[in-house]
Amino acid sequence: MGQDVSPGIFKADMGLITGSTTPIEPQSASQQYCVNIADQAADARFAWQAKTINELEKEIDKRLAELEAKRAEYQEWSKKREEILAKASEHVVSIYAKMRADAAALQLAVLDDEIASAVLVKLNARTASAILNEMEPGRAAQLTKAMVDAARGTPAGKKS
Question: What is the top-level taxon of the source organism (predicted)?
Answer without folding.
Answer: Bacteria
